[in-house]
Amino acid sequence: MRARILIVEDEERGVALLRRFLEPLGYEVRATQDPSKVKSMVVDGDVDLVLLDLMLAGSDGLDVLRALRDFSSVPVIVVTARDALTDKVETLGLGADDYVVKPYASDELLARIKAVLRRGSHEVTKMQPIAVGPIVIELDTPRVLVEGVEVDLSKNEYQVLTVLAQNRGRVVVADTLLDKVWGSEYRGYVSTLHVTVSRLRKKLGHCGKEYIVTKSGIGYMMKSDV
């Protein structure tokens, strides 16, 4: 089945360039210039990947990303002319899977698209859930339950929690988490990791504070018991 890519971009020329590049490679491309249509297009269109510009007419792409993460963990690659490090850190912290600065090399964008789709397509079957106290992480769904109640996590939040749970009782270095969740090119972006862990703790309620421990200057550890 062809991967379905949604382009959120307000410049028709930019959309046309991406269409001409991606469609001959076998991707099914959809596009919108209207941020208010993103939710319905993702929910109804069974989208595999979103390419999101941050500089949208009448709207900030960061707001679109925040809204998107409220209801979906669909992979998102931000493609934008904004090249400030603060923009990149904030965007990744909000749940974007990758960040590409315009102008970009087509081969680089294609490699990043393939990498993100590949990470999202890994299927884990017949794997036992990981239970850490009242936190249960189902690996084949994937979903997380806290005291029997499902918690809505973004893909990156889920992956951070899973890595910590798989190494419970041991400190996981920040760069190791960044490598496993975002990719090796994001080593050093500790602010992105801190923002993600902060959101994760809040969503897990009192269990987040009790079980996820910060090891200052090193990384994080998930307690095996409290």
Automatic annotation (TrEMBL):
Domain Response regulatory: 4-117
Pfam families, alphabetized: Response_reg (PF00072), Trans_reg_C (PF00486)
Name of the protein: Two-component system, OmpR family, response regulator VicR
Cellular component terms per the entry's GO annotation: cytosol; protein-DNA complex
GO molecular function: phosphorelay response regulator activity; transcription cis-regulatory region binding
GO BP, one annotated term: regulation of DNA-templated transcription
Keyword DNA-binding: yes
Keywords attached to this entry: DNA-binding, Phosphoprotein, Transcription, Transcription regulation, Two-component regulatory system
OmpR/PhoB-type domain sequence ranges: 127-224
Residues modified as 4-aspartylphosphate: D53
InterPro entries assigned: CheY-like_superfamily, OmpR/PhoB-type_DNA-bd, Sig_transdc_resp-reg_C-effctor, Sig_transdc_resp-reg_receiver, WalR-like, WH-like_DNA-bd_sf
DNA-binding region: 127-224
Source species of the chain: Ferrithrix thermotolerans DSM 19514
